[in-house]
Every structure is written in structure tokens, then in C-alpha cells.
Design goal:
- It is built from 12 helices and no strands.
- The protein is mainly α.
- The protein has one domain (66-316): Ribonucleotide Reductase, subunit A (Orthogonal Bundle).
Length: 322
């Protein structure tokens, strides 16, 4: 009787399989075996997923955090406990009543509206995860999509808290998202990205251009502004959410390194996609800072730091773009 090898597909790793190896490896069949039945979904995957200019299978990709479902739940439970205590303390101490009316006005111009682009980032992360040709990339992308929902949830909860201070706080958020000049460059950018179906371009545009710029703008720069305006709660909330952004940055860096390791020629389409998506992203960021009521000199410094952070990521990969 022939012995069955339970983890035969992990034998080449030269080590005892870890939980991450077992839970995330070889979960997809179509990249190697193809689609056994011709369906619209199969044709979509073939056209936009497997036929992208980014020629990489990501066989050597590993999430630096080795995130499994159990690990993800544990990490986020710790984060949620911290945020929950933070928000409950604000409710019990009358924290919001101590905020200046001018800062509350800035919060109303930003936080309720930010739910809409954050939801778009969720949909984009889910699409990029779904189209990935390697199961470990699918898993990482799915957790990124879950992180984006966490951000939407906390924006909504903070908005509801501020409605106790100002009953109509955020009532015009949808109107602002659809029509206010400060938000229209971002809305146009995200709507175009939502119909960018090519897996390679969608992944690069999302995780190396649009999302890093928005994460840096809101989770770092706006959080710093909040701290300067004596809003420690928002700064701490943003710090917690930024931990998600840092992990997303790390796994996408590993993704890109694997793509370039498999084929250095992948740097060409990556550079083209970055060059295509950065100008409208920069325009969107510049328009958003206008709602923060900052001095022009400070606004320029914020934009410069966002730009430098994004460019440092591209340079770290050796992907040069103008």
C-alpha cells in the first residue's frame, strides 16, 4: 500500500511546514490546470488575470507577516480592544465637547466623506485579491480588503459619536463626495481605477500609487494635524489604522520583489503604470488638502512628504519613473 504524503506540495521548502504554509499554499487550480469549463468568469480571468503584461506567477511570494485567518483574528482583536477602549473613554469623559468648533468643522469636511473612498479601496483590494494567480497573494489581498472595511467601520463610529455633539454632523457627506470640488479629483480617480480590469495594472495602481498616497495623507498627515489641534483621540485611532497600512505596504513590497525576481522585464510595465496613475493621484491629494484650512506653506509641506514617501517605495524596488 502506497503511503499518502499529506503535504507533498510543500516538500521542496526544506523545512517542516508551518501553519502559514499549510493554510495558504496551492489553493488555486486554474493557473496550472486551466479552466475545465468555459464560463464568463473563466474568460474574464483568462483575459484580465492571466494575460496581463505583468508576467509573474508569484510562486515564491510569502507574506512577511505570515498571516493566516487565526493570526489575523488575533492581531485585529488586540487592535479592536484598544480602539474600543479609546472610543468608550471619549464617550464617558465628554471628550468631544472640548474640541474647538473650528476643528469640528474640519472633521466634518473630512471624516464622513472619507467613508466613500475607503469603501472604494475595499472593493479594489477585493478585486486585486480575486484576480491574483497565486493563493498566498489571494489570502493577503483578502485580508487587506478586510482592513479597509475596518477603516470604514471606525470612520462611521466616530461620525456617530460626533453626532451627539452636532446632530447633523456628516449629513451632507454623500453630497460632498459627489459634488464638492475638493473631492472630485479623487472620485474620478477611484472610479477609473474601479474599471481598470487588468490585474497587473490594477494591483500596481492601487498598492503602489493611489493607496500609499491616501494612507500617508490621512493616516499620517491628517493624524498629525489632529494632534496639533488637540484631538488626541483621532491621532490614536489613525495610528491603529496605520498599522494595517504598514503591513499592506510590506506584503505588496514582497509581491513586487517577487515579480521582478521572476522577470526583471516586469519593471517596464510597472514603471509605465506608476507614471500613468501618479499625476491624477497627486492632483487628488492636492485638492483634498484644501479642505484642511492650513496655511499654503504647510499644505505644500504635506504634499511634499506624501510625494517623497511614494517615490521612496518605487526607488526601493529599483523601478525608476519620471
Amino acid at each position: 500500500m502506497t503511503a499518502q504524503r499529506t503535504y507533498w506540495h510543500l516538500e521542496g521548502r526544506g523545512r517542516v511546514p508551518q501553519p502559514y504554509d499549510i493554510a495558504t499554499s496551492k489553493l488555486l487550480y486554474h493557473p496550472e490546470l486551466g479552466f475545465q469549463v468555459s464560463t464568463p468568469g473563466a474568460m474574464w480571468m483568462q483575459r484580465y488575470g492571466l494575460s496581463t503584461r505583468l508576467q509573474a506567477r508569484f510562486a515564491g511570494f510569502e507574506d512577511p507577516r505570515a498571516t493566516t485567518y487565526a493570526r489575523y483574528v488575533q492581531l485585529q482583536a488586540e487592535q479592536e480592544s484598544f480602539v474600543d477602549q479609546l472610543l468608550q473613554a471619549a464617550e464617558h469623559t465628554g471628550y468631544d465637547g472640548q474640541l474647538s468648533p473650528a476643528w469640528v468643522a474640519v472633521l466634518e469636511a473630512v471624516l464622513p466623506v472619507l467613508r466613500y473612498p475607503s469603501h472604494a479601496l475595499h472593493m479594489l483590494a477585493a478585486y486585486v485579491a480575486h484576480m491574483a494567480p497565486e493563493s498566498r497573494v489571494v489570502v493577503a489581498g483578502a485580508f487587506q480588503a478586510a482592513d479597509e472595511l475596518r477603516r470604514v467601520q471606525h470612520l462611521a463610529r466616530r461620525m456617530r459619536q460626533l453626532q451627539e455633539l452636532k446632530a447633523d454632523f456628516g449629513a451632507a457627506a454623500r453630497e460632498h463626495w459627489q459634488h464638492h470640488p475638493d473631492w472630485q479629483p479623487l472620485r474620478e480617480l477611484l472610479e477609473k481605477l474601479l474599471v481598470t480590469y487588468d490585474y497587473g495594472e490594477a494591483a500596481v495602481a492601487l498598492n503602489f500609487v493611489v493607496k500609499p498616497a491616501l494612507d500617508e495623507l490621512f493616516m499620517v498627515e491628517f493624524a498629525a494635524l489632529a494632534r496639533n489641534r488637540d484631538d488626541r483621540l483621532l491621532a490614536e485611532l489613525a495610528h491603529s489604522l496605520h498599522k494595517d497600512c504598514c503591513w499592506q505596504r510590506d506584503w505588496t513590497q514582497a509581491w513586487a520583489r517577487e515579480a521582478l525576481r521572476e522577470s526583471p522585464a516586469n519593471s517596464v510595465p510597472c514603471a509605465e503604470w506608476i507614471a500613468r496613475w501618479w499625476p491624477p493621484t497627486e492632483q487628488a491629494v492636492e485638492a483634498l488638502v484644501g479642505s484642511w484650512t492650513m496655511a499654503p506653506g504647510l499644505s505644500a509641506q504635506v504634499l511634499g512628504r506624501v510625494r517623497d514617501q511614494c517615490r521612496s517605495r518605487w526607488q526601493a524596488l529599483g523601478v525608476e519613473t519620471q
